[in-house]
Request: fold
Amino acid sequence: MPLSALGETRLRRLQATVTRAYDRVKLFHQRMEERNLRPQDIRSLDDVRKLPFTVKTDLRDTYPYGLFASEMRDVVRLHASSGTTGKPIVVGYTREDIAVWTEVIARSLAACGLHAGDIVQNAYGYGLFTGGLGAHYGAEALGATVIPISGGNTERQITVLKDFGVTAICCTPSYFLHLLDQGALLGVDFRQLPLRAGVFGAEPWTQAMRERIEAESRLKAYDIYGLSEIIGPGVAIECARQDGLHIFEDHFLAEIVDTETLEPLPDGSEGELVLTTLSKQAMPMIRYRTRDITALIAEPCPCGRTLRRMRRIGRRSDDMLIIRGVNVFPSQIEAALLRVEGTLPHYQIVLTREADLDQMEVQVEVTPQVFSDEVRVLEELQRKLVHSIETITGIRAAIRLVAPKTIPRSEGKAKRVIDKRKL
Amino acid sequence: MKIHQLSVFLENKPGRLRAACAELAAHGISIVTLSLADTEQFGILRLIVEDWQKARTTLENAGCIVKVTEVLAIEVTDEPGGLARILDTVDRASLNIEYMYAFAEKRGGKAVLVFRFEDPDTALRVLKDGGINVLENVKLFRLA
Reply:
């Protein structure tokens, strides 16, 4: 269907979503009120730009059900992110939401050339993670035979791949590389298997990884994109052209914004992907900042789909840090500071390298709430902050307490990371 | 009588102490006495001034973090054992002293010490009962 015909449906859905969020979710209501916005102010799809952004910390701050727009009796499923950044993030689905999710996954798998008759080994983790059950329902709806093997137990994965006539596998690309390596050790040649499609997601990966996967097996490696806050996997999928991911624009409204100014950017410009759900009931999401950096492709895809594409995610705007080989998100540091101080102080992470070893210093502005006339109270605060950061990230950081307003702010927001390492 | 002490957070960087003092000077506020507690990374400037409310506003407007604490200014006889006698009373009542420092000038031949007790109210009562002179306010000291 041409996108113009879809336009009316999308606008109607956007209006319904905004109304639902405004009427039922305190946070969205407050933020719209602050901007003197009412749902009826959304008269075109472009009017989405008037709406406030939602960020990951909003989900944490409203943990667990604060952003739900449905009664719990209508919520038939909960998923949650792992608790590595402090509190987990909880997401909910109504029966209708599950149906939409199932549909977008089924469409995704169809875009990868799967259909009834395919035998799908689903090696995404089953459980609170959205990957396992999301892919499972979609593959079943498509009519494929699903093997719900879940993640882990590599030897059994390889045995099943070999013995069950598996034609498609769903897992993270790095796990598939691991399967290839282990298969080689066990004398299993993936090129001899009937495996012809891999649906890989849940982490950024590169063209080089794709080339290696496709060289060492006969399968075509497809990139699937999604995030729990929006629905889980199934927000966008590559087609047979493997040149950008088609976004399911009938259910998700995509924008690209400048990472600094947050101003919307035209198609083709690289920026942060911002998503608004168009049909979610239990947890409508308004202008969610994904932190994923990409660009929208306006040109039609030779495959014939009219859904716009986005480029593969290469990096994130929150710049995950690798410190002594450990992945650290600034959001984890935030969680650690928040846990100790109760409110989030202004802070800055400074990375240096001394004697070939990465050093992380976290500068924290002293607030009236934590300040004391006693040295030992401030030293105890430092110790607690060091411990909290170590508990959450596994990295022992130095804490430097600094005076208020000394950490530079740009555009009203502080620059969180100063990396002085010469790599 | 308890008096009000202002504490100011200072980063351990050149010029930070001067900046805070200059701010007070610019507003005509004179420092009666002060003490500086410092660590490798930061310092806490503790100040006694006459008009603590004005000083607080001045410092806060300059972007400082200021905490107001109640402390006791205690007269100490300027002779061997003068302080020990006071600490006797303090110990017998199991009062916890967080820190203390001295006024710069003497008052009528007596020294004055600033005591930060964990529990200033109990300390005040115990010291008065023990016949120890606790200054009524900062101005009294200045006039001496």
Q: What stands out?
A: Chain A has two domains: 77-316, 321-419.
